[in-house]
Amino acid sequence: MTELSAHLPQFQHGQLTENFPDNHLSNTNDNSERRRHDNSERRRNDNPGSETNGQPQNNIQQVVEQDEEEDEELTLKYGAKHVIMLFVPVTLCMVVVVATIKSVSFYTRKDGQLIYTPFTEETETIGQRALNSILNAAIMISVIIVMTILLVVLYKYRCYKVIHGWLIISSLLLLFFFSFIYLGEVFKTYNVAMDYITVALMIWNFGVVGMICIHWKGPLRLQQAYLIMISALMALVFIKYLPEWTAWLILAVISVYDLVAVLCPKGPLRMLVETAQERNETLFPALIYSSTMVWLVNMAEEDPEAQRKASKNSTYDKQANQTQNEDAEADDGGFSQEWQQQRDNRIGPIESTPESRAAVQALPSNSQTSEDPEERGVKLGLGDFIFYSVLVGKASATASGDWNTTLACFVAILIGLCLTLLLLAIFKKALPALPISITFGLVFYFATDNLVQPFMDQLAFHQFYI
Amino acid sequence: AFFWLVSLLLSSLIWFIAVKASDPHDEPLQKGLLIFGVMFSVLLQEAFRFLYYKLLRKAIEGLVALSEDGCSPISIQQMAYVAGVGFGLMSGAFSMINLLADALGPGTVGIHGDSQLYFLTSAFMTMVLIFLHTFWGILFFHGCENRRWWEIAAVVVMHLAVSGSTFCNPLYVGSLVPSYLLMAAAAVWAYLLSGGSAQNLRRFLLCK
């Protein structure tokens, strides 16, 4: 499959962001990129609309004040609910990946490497191997950075068509080709006899429904299911084609990059968010997993534009997927955060058409107060799903402690996610979702594999219990 | 669960260091080190349970401050129960999951002369430990809440006793029986502390 490496979709780092800038548009739809609970955030965002909106702000003030206190409570009350809403899809994705790794041997077999990681790890000395993996990781990260900057540039110069085309090609590739390979390998593992016609029919249906669900409209559950499946497929590709040390290094470096790209003032993602805010439009339909239909937020709006935005919302999740598929190991890490922020905040059109932009600006800011906080969902970038699954998958594939290590990494990632959500609720601004979870995951992986595993082994041998 | 995991990590770190610093071929020494590791791990687990209690206390204060009617949406007893279940599940999972995975594959139990009841007794032992962790959670938190140090000490002593009893494995009578007895005692104690009584139980059983 090395020839495909050129087309491997880029993934996006999902970034968990909570869009909460004070100068942010008071529009409900700001920053669809926001990953975290939009509810409280949105309410808080009800704050005086930014000047750019040109919307009346006086009446907003009072609304804002009483909203703030309610928001505090809501944040915590619904925080737990949102955490659970994110736990389920992340867990599902990881379960799918681990189940596949354990049963289908294809994904643990070494069949070559991607062109993004040209240096082999089968070297004679450890020093050489370390050097190779560092070089591999460096190449991969630079590809990602370059792609992110490219996306920022494309966005800045409003080349939306290019980006959309890119996203569509990515999702096509992922939905059809990778799932075909996956299906083939599963059949081989279980020795199921199958003819090409049936397979063609199945893949065709799967792919077309996926494209429709992701890029257009579809039932929420189906959309979520497709997003999870796509993240799992992408994660499996990474697990297969990244050699060991390279994979761990890449995970570590990407979480650092994530942190830098989102929080530094000069970071590409941050620039993207700011540009999008200036233009009052949503960012690209990045890969975002949404737990509820965001358009509910707009229900209060009689504005017909809201309806349009609503439908667009459902689509942006798809796009998020696409982006993932499209970019192989590229950039997007930071980019997707921005996107997600934008998306979440924007809840709006995926395509930044002038009408939608006008609609967004036309929305009165106090419309948000009528939103039902229960309806707001949480959003998490698909890149996050992918990297969490890569970590857990790699742990289950290559650990000597086997299930103990997998379980430990799983718990570590979930706790990291909890902490990130908590920080998001406290700081109320865009935060990267990767660093904390990946750090915990890596620490627990290496610690469990090397320290806990021999201990538990000895205990089990003597049947001692602690 | 996370706290239990961290305590396990730290205790295995200590054990690992001890093992590396000692002679690997000295069997009794290794076993002795293992026993030391187990005891240390038990103490560490209880310490982490205490830390978790502190964390939850702070969280409850925060929740109370933010709630509308001045009382928290979740009581400390519920938290104690959940904490206990979390500890128990994690400890159970770590004890059993590799066994279960191996049990799926081909093999004969005890072919080298070990006990043939290995899987069965492991399963029972794990179950009793999970229950015990749950009850200990309730007892421990109750003791911390009402400043009854003897309750906390009782929990620690019970844990040490149960772990210690497993040292007589494969003489399963010595480990399973006392553990189940202790579990029954802890269950009754926790039930009484949570506000249950013989009357409640009767009413529940007779579906009144």
Topology:
The complex is a heterodimer of chains A (466) and B (208).
Chain A: E1 31-33, H1 38-45, H2 58-103, H3 126-156, H4 160-190, H5 196-215, H6 220-241, H7 244-263, H8 268-279, E2 288-290, H9 304-326, H10 333-346, H11 354-362, E3 379-381, H12 382-398, H13 403-427, H14 434-462
Antiparallel strand pairs in A: 2-3
Chain B: H1 2-20, H2 27-66, H3 76-104, H4 118-145, H5 149-165, H6 172-193, H7 198-205
What does this protein look like?
The complex is a heterodimer of chains A (466) and B (208). Chain A is an all-alpha fold and 466 residues long. Chain A has a domain of 300 residues. Chain A has a two-stranded antiparallel sheet. The N terminus of chain A is likely disordered. Chain B is mostly helical. Chain B has one domain. Chain B is globular, with a radius of gyration of 20 Å. The two termini of chain B are 37 Å apart. The mean pLDDT of chain B is 83. Classes of the chains: A mainly alpha (466), B mainly alpha (208). At the A-B interface, helix 2, helix 13 and helix 14 of A face helix 1, helix 2, helix 3 and helix 4 of B.
Strand content of chain B: under 5%
How many beta strands in the DSSP annotation of chain A? 3
**Taking all residues together, what is the mean pLDDT of chain B?**
83
Distance between the termini of chain A: 47 Å
Uncertain parts of chain B: none
Quaternary organisation of the protein chains: heterodimer
> Mean pLDDT of chain A, nearest integer?
70
Radius of gyration of chain A, taken over Cα atoms and rounded to an integer in Å: 22 Å
How many domains make up the 3D coordinates of chain B? Answer: 1
Query: Secondary-structure element sequence of chain A?
Result: EHHHHHHHHEHHHEHHH
What class would the helix/strand composition of chain B place it in? mainly alpha
Helix content of chain B: over 70%
Distance between the termini of chain B: 37 Å
Read across the widest sheet of chain A, the strand sequence of neighbours is 2-3
Largest Cβ-defined interface: A-B, 30 and 47 residues
DSSP helical segment count of chain A: 14
- Low-confidence residue ranges of chain A: 1-57, 294-353, 362-375
Major pleated sheet of chain A: 2 strands, antiparallel
Shape of chain A: globular
